[in-house]
Every structure is written in structure tokens, then in C-alpha cells.
Amino acid sequence: MDIAVIGSNMVDLISYINRMPRDGETVEAPDFALGCGGKGANQAVAAARLGSAVRMVTRVGNDLFADNTVANFERNGIDTTYVLRTAATSGVAPIFVNPDSQNSIIIVQGANSLLTPADIDAAATEISKCKLIVLQLEIPLETVYYAIDFGVKHGIDVLLNPAPAQPDLLLSRVRACTYFTPNESELSLLTGMPVETIPDVRNAAHTLLEAGMRNVIVTLGGRGVLWVAEGVDMLLPATPVEAVDTTGAGDAFIGCFSHYVVATGDIEYSLRMANRYAADSVTKRGTQTSYASKEEFALLHS
Ligand code: RIB
């Protein structure tokens, strides 16, 4: 296996709205879509569609959503040995996409909140054969910390996408990861620093390097991506596109970056590919439904 994603899965309930209702108000929305989502699952699917061998370690509920989630992993060629059934509801994410293509998301973690360090131990033999562990913050923080320690102990690179923003995240417990990939608001929350301008973002990212991180990769939406590491400070521009729905674009970026960095070991090249892949995803509706296959992506950048 190339990649172990230890993280979340959700059922995305996506409403395309004209505006959010006020307290006590009912408004009609023009469209709705049901999809497979969750930051962990999205990143796993993007990497798998590009050709990585991916193992998913996650918990689904014992409801009607669970079978569909497992079947979706299987359709995408993802190993589901450690997709664990749990006496809980599946994670769900009501999502609201406004006419400007921007999204607001509520997550209910459900079974994801029950993914424990013991689940990592149960999958230890298989995870230890992977080249990269990919993590996000829709599972308990203790499990995230344990997975990072596991990666360090076994000499496996670890990517932590600190999303959604978690004020309780202890930088001292995550600084050993190989790649740390906040967006600008997560960076601001974690550092307590402003991120309005690119120099602001640079300053904030450099404080994470000073705190012991190796590669800080800040995703900046339309402003591109900033990579800082020892001796590296590189701003890569975004690929300009007409956005239709930005939901899951960050996950498309992480999944694609994970695929290419495992395949090539070339961080700059992987960031450039991830920029293009994420940009393509915002031109289509939905989360995983907007992720290109390897063949589709090859056509885009050939
Ligand atoms: O990043 C987008 C994802 O966030 C959605 O798929 C939703 O499930 C939430 O986890």
C-alpha cells in the first residue's frame, strides 16, 4: 500500500441555496445532492482515483448510510479492511452552497468520534507497510496524536491537514509530522497571527517552522499555495478557473499532493499538480463527484 488515510467519512447533504434562513424562518432552495464526503474519505478517494493504493482506517455507523459508504470506497479501489462498523450513527455533513459557489458546512461526527488509538493498533501491521499516513481533524485528537507517534516510530511520513480548525490542537503533539497543511484561517487560529496579506501568511507559517515543523504548506484558495521549509519559501499561484462549487477542493488538493509526493518524492512538483487538480474540482458540483480520474486529469495537464 502507498497511503493509509486514518480519518473521517461523512454523508454530504448538499443544498444549493439562494440564502441562509434567519432564526425561525423557512426558505426554499433550488437544488440538493446527496454524496459521499468527509475530509478523510475525500482525500482517500482523490489519491486512489489518481492511482495510489490506499487503505482507509475509519468508522462508519450501523445505519442505512454505512453500506453506501463502504461500497463507495470499494468502487474507488480503496482497501476497506479497517472500515469498522460501529453502534452509532454515521457521520453526516449538511452543506450549504451559496450563489457565489462558497460553502458552509456543519459536521456531526457520529461514528468518526469513536475511532481510537486501539483501531490503529489493530491495523498496525498493514499501516506500517504504507509510505504515507494522511490525517485530518474530524476524529478524536488523541487518535491523531497517536497516529503521528506511530508514523514516527515506524519511519513513515505523516501528513496532517489540520481541518476543520481545532483550537485545542497541541502543536507540541503534532510538530513531528512531515507535512502540515493548514488553510489560512486554520493557520491564523493555530498561531494567533493575522493572515490578511501574503507577508502575514509567511510570518505565521515561519513561526510553525520555528516551532519544529518540517514542511508547512498553506492553501490559500485563489491566492495559491505557500510552501515553507528549511531554506524554502515558495508561493505557487492558483490555476485560474470559473468556480461552480468549492466544496472539497482542499481535500482534492491533499489527496492529489499525497499521491504525487509518494509517487515522485518531489514536493514542488506535487504541489503544482495538486493546485491544478483542486482547481479542476471547483469547476464541478459536489465533493467526490468533482474529483477527476487519472485519465481525466492526464487530459487536463497534457
Ligand atoms: O472538506 C469538505 C468535507 O468537509 C465535506 O465532504 C464534509 O463531509 C466535511 O467533512
UniProtKB/TrEMBL annotation:
The protein's required cofactors: Mg(2+)
EC number: 2.7.1.229
Subcellular location: Cytoplasm
Catalytic activity: 2-deoxy-D-ribose + ATP = 2-deoxy-D-ribose 5-phosphate + ADP + H(+)
Keyword Isomerase: no
Active-site residue list: 251 (proton acceptor)
Residues noted as binding substrate in the record, renumbered to the chain: 10-12, 38-42, 138, 251
One annotated GO molecular function: ribokinase activity
Domain Carbohydrate kinase PfkB: 2-290
Binding-site positions, ATP: 183, 219-224, 250-251, 275
Domain of life per record: Bacteria
Binding positions (K(+)): 245, 247, 281, 284, 286, 290
Alphabetical list of InterPro entries matching this protein: PfkB_dom (IPR011611), Ribo/fructo_kinase (IPR002139), Ribokinase (IPR011877), Ribokinase-like (IPR029056)
Coiled coil stretches, renumbered: none
Keywords: ATP-binding, Carbohydrate metabolism, Cytoplasm, Kinase, Magnesium, Metal-binding, Nucleotide-binding, Potassium, Transferase
CDD domains with a match to the protein in the record: ribokinase
Annotated positions for site Important for substrate specificity: 10
Enzyme class name: transferase
Family assignment from sequence similarity: Belongs to the carbohydrate kinase PfkB family. Deoxyribokinase subfamily.
Subunit: Homodimer.
PANTHER family, sorted: RIBOKINASE (PTHR10584:SF166), SUGAR KINASE (PTHR10584)
Protein's job: Catalyzes the ATP-dependent phosphorylation of 2-deoxy-D-ribose to 2-deoxy-D-ribose 5-phosphate (dRib-5P), allowing the use of deoxyribose as the sole carbon source.
Name by which UniProt lists this protein: Deoxyribokinase
Species of the source: Actinotignum sanguinis
